Amino acid sequence: MPQSERSEIIKEFLSWLGAKTRQTGATRQECIRHIQLEITNMGAEEKRCEKYLKDCEKAGLIYVDGLKFKLTDAGKNWLQRKVS
């Protein structure tokens, strides 16, 4: 997958997760479903979607609070830089 496409997927996912974070966060399944349905138009396997989650968590862009994923301050800053 081209780097620009991957970046777009991550931007879209972090924007969505940012909105969910302002409420209660999103479950792992909600995150995977969002990546799968909304971003890749059902073109991604669940393993690939899980990899996006792990990569974002490893980079410090998201974190798990109990059973909910939430956007970190670093994730918000990354998103602001990429969207501007």
In words, what does this structure look like?
The protein is mainly alpha-helical. Strand 2 and strand 3 form a beta hairpin. Helix 1 crosses helix 2, helix 1 crosses helix 4 and helix 2 packs across helix 3. The chain is globular and about 30 Å long. The protein has one domain: Winged helix-like DNA-binding domain superfamily/Winged helix DNA-binding domain (Arc Repressor Mutant, subunit A, Orthogonal Bundle), CATH 1.10.10.10. A 3-stranded antiparallel beta sheet has the order 1-3-2.
Write the layout of secondary structure elements.
Elements: H1 3-23, E1 26-27, H2 28-39, H3 46-58, E2 62-65, E3 68-71, H4 73-83
Antiparallel strand pairs: 1-3, 2-3
In short:
The chain has 84 residues and is mostly helical. It has helices spanning 3-23, 28-39, 46-58, 73-83; strands at 26-27, 62-65, 68-71.
Q: Largest sheet, order of strands side by side?
A: 1-3-2
Order of helices and strands: HEHHEEH
Please tell me the CATH architecture by its name. Answer: Orthogonal Bundle
Question: What is the CATH level 1 assignment?
Answer: Mainly Alpha
Q: From the 3D structure, determine the CATH topology.
A: Arc Repressor Mutant, subunit A
Structural class: mainly alpha
Number of helices: 4
**Count of distinct strands:** 3
